[in-house]
Amino acid sequence: MYRISIAxxxxxxxxxxxxxxxxxxxxxxxVGAAVGALEFVNALNPNALNPNALNPNALNPNALNPNALNPNALxxxxxxAIQDPGAAGDLSRQxxxxxxxxxxxxxxxxxxxxxxxxxxxxxxxxxxxxxxxPDWSTKALGHNDQQWISACLASRTNWYGVSVTISSRGxxxxxDKTGTLELTTYTHLEGAFWGNLFAPSPxxxxxxxxxxxxYSRSLMRECAAGHLTSGGAVQQCGMLSIRGSCTAYxxxxxxxxxxxxxxxxxxxxxxxxxxxxxxxxxx
Length: 283
Known about the structure:
The protein has helices spanning 9-15, 21-30, 34-42, 76-83, 87-103, 143-155, 182-185, 213-218, 246-249; strands at residues 44-45, 109-115, 121-127, 166-169, 188-196, 203-208, 227-228, 234-235, 240-245, 278-282. It is α+β, with helices and mostly antiparallel strands. The chain has one domain (9-282). Helix 4 (76-83) crosses helix 5. The two termini are 34 Å apart.
């Protein structure tokens, strides 16, 4: 088990207000269940990150220090954030559960306790799901892994804060679906997500599949497609920038694993291409 060693987690927690408590509890309760285990192996994962969580005006996201997930490195500020009995503490713990889910394996977890306002002690244990950076438990998070964790958090963001199961695909073995049944059951390409929340100037990008934008919205997935207001305007999810169609911003879809090998941040000037991209499909 591990405790997070994030030096300024208190600051980051307000920058990434994550999800719904009900969904967090749903994910924790599913650990060990047969269907949950199958979903973890296939990187099918529920998502309910609230887009308001990605508001950089709350507090600067680069307060996250990518040190090893070592209990001895937990700063007083980070410990205070996740043990806060108030609303801010709820947000910190919610964020923590999603970070762990993206980074660690289903066999990995870390635990801590906190005391609420009535004096009741809560023992928390957050489990890994996808396993994009399992070595984070023993060493600092490298640049590539920073981008993978960022892409994962972006892909699990939901405009409505509700849980929708998605198929996450990419080049890491944890996301490689080549030859799996998942390719034939999750067939609607939603889009792709990439960025780096650990950078000096944090950013998140998304692109959409033009043919499936309406379908994605019908399943309450709007952070790639864009949320339509009553007036027909398109709104993005917090700081997650919708770049446009994936065919314009990403390398041609890999037809074996069904993922975009890389995407660019800009079509003009310096493209800043990255291969750390998570492509999402819907059933």
